[in-house]
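Hey, weird one. I pasted the Pyridoxamine 5'-phosphate oxidase sequence into the form twice and got a warning about non-standard characters only the second time. First submission, copied straight from the form history:
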Amino acid sequence: MEITRILDAALRKAAAVWITSPGHGPRLVHAHWRADALWVITGGTEQSVPGLTDGAEVTVTVRSPSTHSHLVDAPAVARLTEPDEETAQALRTARLNTKPEWEAVYRLEFSA
């Protein structure tokens, strides 16, 4: 799947993307790429992402990790999920300088 390959190459090095959710403009969001999906944590001590709900169709805008120019806009569906312990630990580790406490975890799934 071409879009997954492009996202995989770009998001291995990126810690943030722009997410446009229904009824809201683009918002810079910290995210973590794992298992061909983009993981976003919200609430608690973490970021607020208005319009990000279970089943929401969103657009993820990715910039090139080397030039920071626009790379791709990719449609995705947000799925509210309970991460397994390995994924939860990866999300905690990805935040580096904070002790994340979240209320919700979304797995953004990309279509072909």
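That's the output from the first submission. The warning seems to come from a hidden character in my clipboard, not from the data itself. The chain has one domain: 2-110.
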